[in-house]
């Protein structure tokens, strides 16, 4: 018998969840713990979403076709998914922000060991610990495809690995990527970009970034970029 996520929502103006533990759930499709589609705004605050699994996308959470997503003060650990070991989002027209969170020990059978984001207008990751995540394809910690801007600030990213490219972060088709106040260490990729792989965008901006002891079998033990400006 097919199993669904604990929270399952189509449409609506707002999904707001606070101070809840959602752990040990599984889904045979998308979103091991939480699934939303067509919901205009999603707000999560002070949650623990751990040890969930999905055969499809988003081991803990899947969300698509909305306006904005705000995630604050969450624990997303030890989840397993197809694309997006912890979290998979797609077609979010305005913004998704994740702040003050631990995302550790998640694994994806596809891309995005912790986070998989496709066609998100603006993606902001701030004040996070993103460590020990694994992707069978690209983006050991974070995979971003399409969208206007990716901003990663004040994040500790360590010990993530990808069997493809981007040991910690893989970005393709995002117009502008800004990475500042980061520590990226001990990440690895069997492809290119041991820490960061950035391709097919306008600019990659790095400032106040420590990039130590990352490795790649392909190009760029630390950073591999294929764009117009860096």
SSE topology:
Elements (H helix, E strand, L loop, with lengths): L6 E4 L3 E8 L4 E2 L6 E4 L3 E8 L4 E2 L6 E17 L2 E2 L5 E18 L2 E2 L6 E17 L2 E2 L6 E4 L3 E10 L2 E2 L6 E4 L3 E10 L2 E2 L6 E4 L3 E10 L2 E2 L6 E4 L4
Q: Oligomeric state of the chains? A: single chain
Q: What proportion strand?
A: over 45%
Helical percentage = under 10%
How many helical stretches?
0
Estimate nothing, just give the exact number of structural domains.
1
Principal-axis shape = globular
Q: Unreliable stretches, pLDDT < 50, 5 or more residues?
A: none
* Largest sheet report: 14 strands, parallel
Mean pLDDT: 92
H-E order: EEEEEEEEEEEEEEEEEEEEEE
Number of strands: 22
Determine the N-to-C terminus distance: 50 Å
Description:
This protein has 230 residues and is mainly β. It has one domain. Helix content is 0%, strand content 60%. It has no helices and 22 strands. Strands 1, 2, 4, 5, 7, 9, 11, 13, 14, 16, 17, 19, 20 and 22 form a 14-stranded parallel β-sheet that branches. It has a six-stranded parallel β-sheet with strand order 8-10-12-15-18-21, with no helix packed on it. The N and C termini lie far apart (50 Å). The mean pLDDT is 92.
């Amino acid at each position: 018998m097919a199993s669904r996520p604990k929270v399952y929502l189509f449409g609506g103006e707002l999904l707001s969840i606070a101070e809840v533990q959602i752990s040990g759930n599984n889904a045979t499709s998308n979103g091991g713990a939480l699934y939303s589609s067509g919901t205009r705004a999603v707000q999560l605050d002070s949650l623990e979403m751990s040890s969930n699994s999905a055969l499809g996308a988003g081991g803990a959470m899947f969300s698509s076709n909305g306006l904005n997503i705000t995630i604050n003060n969450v624990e997303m650990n030890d989840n397993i998914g197809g694309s997006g070991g912890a979290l998979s989002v797609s077609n979010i027209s305005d913004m998704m922000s994740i702040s003050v969170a631990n995302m550790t020990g998640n694994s994806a059978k596809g891309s995005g060991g912790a986070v998989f984001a496709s066609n998100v207008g603006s993606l902001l990751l701030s004040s996070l610990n993103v460590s020990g995540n694994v992707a069978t394809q690209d983006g050991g910690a974070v995979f971003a495809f399409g969208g206007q801007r990716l901003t990663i600030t004040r994040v500790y990213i360590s010990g993530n690995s990808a069997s493809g490219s981007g040991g910690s972060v893989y970005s393709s088709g995002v117009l502008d990527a800004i990475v500042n106040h980061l520590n990226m260490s001990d990440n690895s990729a069997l492809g290119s970009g041991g820490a960061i792989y950035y391709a097919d965008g306008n600019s990659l901006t790095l400032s106040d970034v420590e990039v130590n002891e990352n490795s790649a079998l392909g190009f760029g033990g630390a950073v591999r970029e294929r764009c117009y400006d860096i």
